[in-house]
Specification:
CATH topology: Immunoglobulin-like
CATH architecture: Sandwich
Structural class: mainly beta
Number of domains: 1
Number of helices: 0
Largest sheet: 6 strands, antiparallel
Helix content: under 10%
CATH class: Mainly Beta
Strand order of the largest sheet: 1-2-11-10-9-8
Strand content: over 45%
Radius of gyration: 15 Å
């Protein structure tokens, strides 16, 4: 397993996908097609776990590079989010879908998912017991056979 935490600055939540900079990134080498996860500390002091899991059978033959379907996830004590991406044999994101969440004491009021050939971002707007609101983001950036992931919330 290979991981690296790389500091970046977060962009505003209205920033276009092309202009996005990712913070507290964990990188995963996808060539072995195994589940991988790593803990990070968010700006607010919370511990978040970020991970990737290959989806589907791995016995149907050899997958080139990081090819295939992957579940990308992030969770803290009160919010779990995940989505799925497909990666081509060229190391490009070809689809991102099924943004999902499970929250403890929070209500998700809006959510979405967008992607390009190298970057995917899922987002969830949530309220905490009607007194506070925020946006939780899950990022995935593909470079070769390495997937860089991050969460913010």
């Amino acid at each position: 397993m290979m991981f690296t935490v790389v500091p970046y600055a977060f962009a505003d939540s209205n920033t276009s996908l092309d202009d996005l900079e990712i913070s507290d990134t964990v990188s995963f080498d996808l060539t072995n097609r195994v589940r991988q996860e790593q803990e990070i500390v968010l700006e607010n002091g919370e511990i978040a776990t970020i991970g990737v899991v290959p989806v589907g059978p791995t016995t149907r033959g050899t997958y080139e590079n990081a090819t295939g379907e992957w579940e990308i996830y992030g969770y803290t004590v009160y919010m779990n989010v995940w989505c799925f991406i497909n990666i081509s044999s060229e190391g490009k994101i070809t689809n991102a879908y099924n943004p999902s969440h499970l929250g403890l004491g929070v209500t998700v009021t809006n959510s979405g998912l967008e992607y390009s050939s190298t970057l995917a971002r899922g987002w969830w707007d949530y309220e905490f017991q009607g007194i506070a609101s925020a946006r939780y983001n899950l990022y995935a950036e593909m470079k070769g056979t390495t997937l860089y992931t991050s969460v913010s919330g």
